[in-house]
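Researcher: We're teaching a course module on how sequence relates to structure. For the next exercise, students receive a sequence and then see the predicted structure as tokens, so they can try to spot secondary structure elements on their own. Here is the exercise chain.
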Amino acid sequence: MIHTVLPEQYLRKADGRRFDPQRRLMLAVLQTVIDDCRGSQTRQAAGRPADVEGKAYAAARAYLASTDRSWPFTFENLCDALDLDARSIRRSLIGRGAP
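Model: And here is the predicted structure for the students to work with:
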């Protein structure tokens, strides 16, 4: 799968600091999950249909639905580390029925 790297992911912020490598990795993991959950915007941009039946889609939805905190890169832990609201992100990506 091809992922687009945006300038804000590698250029210095206005205050002169860059995200540390761990934070950039966390953001990259979340970006990949979001892209997979949406059926891969990369696929859609290439004129192919969204892959909402594939393994990546199913894995992304399972990752988002999990409330496990036993591994540092679980969805809940990443959201906490990045100061994001896991519940809101989960609802917006997998629907209102999410925990």
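Model: If you want an answer key for the exercise: The longest helix spans residues 21-37. The chain has one domain: 20-94.
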